[in-house]
Amino acid sequence: MGLILLEAFLAGAVLVLIVWWTMFSGRKGGEIDHGDDAPGAPEDAKPSKRD
Question: Which of 3, 8, 21, 42 lies 20 to 30 Å from 28, alpha-carbon distance?
């Protein structure tokens, strides 16, 4: 019984480590801001350029 609990604990620890790694291992300055003309952005999400 103890071996099953140890295995479950280790699997949970690995899961927490994977989630932590994917959340906090990004770029040091955050994501790069490409502005309004980022490729793949939907046209209706871009602000219109009317004067």
Answer: 42
Question: What gap in Å lies between CA 34 and CA 24, rounded to an integer?
Answer: 21
Average pLDDT over all residues of the chain: 78
CA separation for the pair 44, 28 (Å, rounded): 31
Q: Residue 38 and residue 11: Cα distance in Å, rounded?
A: 39
CB 35 within 8 A of CB 46: no
Q: Where are the alpha helices (DSSP H) in 1-51?
A: 2-24
Q: Is the pTM of this model over 0.70?
A: no
